[in-house]
Design a protein that fits this description.
alpha+beta; Rossmann fold; four-stranded mixed sheet; 3 helices; 4 strands; globular
């Protein structure tokens, strides 16, 4: 929260500790089990790097933060397993994906 607080402020977004909305940046690449993070959320906006594993020059091979690799379909399955419906998956830039999901 503190890391992005000034960005939220510039965008006019108020951040509350008890919100049911969740913004996820960089967690999918570091953590295998995200059930604790997702269990209290009702709406999620996630930015996730989906590497091209066929490309040997891809960042995933050179940056240690990538500990868990998932395809877009694996990410959708992960959300569905946690009770979410994925409403939108958008390719932002190359391998970066934006995923919107919500619980009904």
């Amino acid at each position: 929260k503190e890391k992005y607080e000034s960005v939220f402020e510039d965008l006019g977004i108020s951040v509350k500790d008890n919100s049911n909305n969740l913004l996820i940046v960089g967690e999918f690449e570091k953590n295998y089990d995200l059930s604790d993070i997702l269990k209290k959320a009702k709406k999620v906006l996630a930015f996730v790097y989906v590497p091209d594993l066929k490309d040997r020059e891809n960042l995933v091979w050179f940056i240690p933060k990538f500990r868990v690799l998932r395809t877009t379909s694996q990410l959708i399955s992960l959300f569905e397993k946690e009770g979410f419906k994925v409403s939108k998956v958008e390719a932002i830039d190359g391998n970066l994906r934006c995923i919107q999901a919500y619980k009904e």
